[in-house]
């Protein structure tokens, strides 16, 4: 039997719209993910089909897609372990599926796939929409990386502190 706490396919927890389903990305999903990348990021930041193909089979990488009734690939998230933390490398939702809980479901899918460890990510400073999502999900700003995305394009690092598996760290 699957362990619902560590199986991202079972990660649609109470409170999530039942129409959104998470699965590990398969090769059939990659073209759809590449299209979402292109629609979501400027050239240079969007993952290409070849990059996505490598990530989809890379050991230790969790690459999830969200499906809805309307879209076979409504969004994606890519995460791995990095220097003792969980790192979210990429999160993107089809423009037609935004503000429907898909990004939230994908972030929760990462938490289910990696039940313990702090989660880190980087967002462009101007991207206040993404930062609002992260903050709503319990991430806090942990620093600014100047010129991280190119000259004058600063990055904001965000972190979600978690305790041992299944427990949240108590903030004092
Ligand atoms: C950022 C992104 C992933 C959000 O995905 P999403 O599916 O729309 O997010 P959700 O529907 O789960 O949003 C949950 C909450 O986050 C906040 N939020 C999300 N997007 C927001 C935006 N553009 N502006 C303000 N708040 C936003 C809201 O509080 C929202 O709740 P509400 O819709 O009830 O107001 C999506 O807009 C996207 O793919 N953007 C382009 C790529 C990108 O910026 N990726 C992140 C890189 S760091």
The domain count comes to 1
Characterize the largest beta sheet: strand count, sense, and whether it forms a barrel: 7 strands, mixed
Write down the CATH class.
Answer: Alpha Beta
CA-CA gap between termini: 38 Å
What's the number of extended β-strand segments?
Answer: 7
The overall average pLDDT, rounded, is 89
CATH topology: Aminopeptidase
Q: State Rg.
A: 15 Å
The helix fraction, in percent, is 10-25%
Low-confidence region ranges: 1-5, 10-16
Q: How much of the polypeptide forms β-strand, as a percent range? A: 25-35%
Bound molecules: coenzyme A
H-E order: EHHEEEHEHEE
Kindly describe this structure.
The protein is α+β, with helices and mostly antiparallel strands. The chain has one domain: Aminopeptidase. Helix content is 24%, strand content 26%. The chain is built from four helices and seven strands. It has helices spanning 30-40, 49-57, 102-113, 128-136, and strands spanning 21-24, 62-67, 75-82, 85-93, 119-124, 140-145, 155-160. Helix 1 (30-40) crosses helix 2 (49-57). Coenzyme A binds at residues 40, 91-93, 98-104, 123, 127, 129-130, 132-133, 136. Residues 40, 91-93, 98-104, 123, 127, 129-130, 132-133, 136 line the site of coenzyme A.
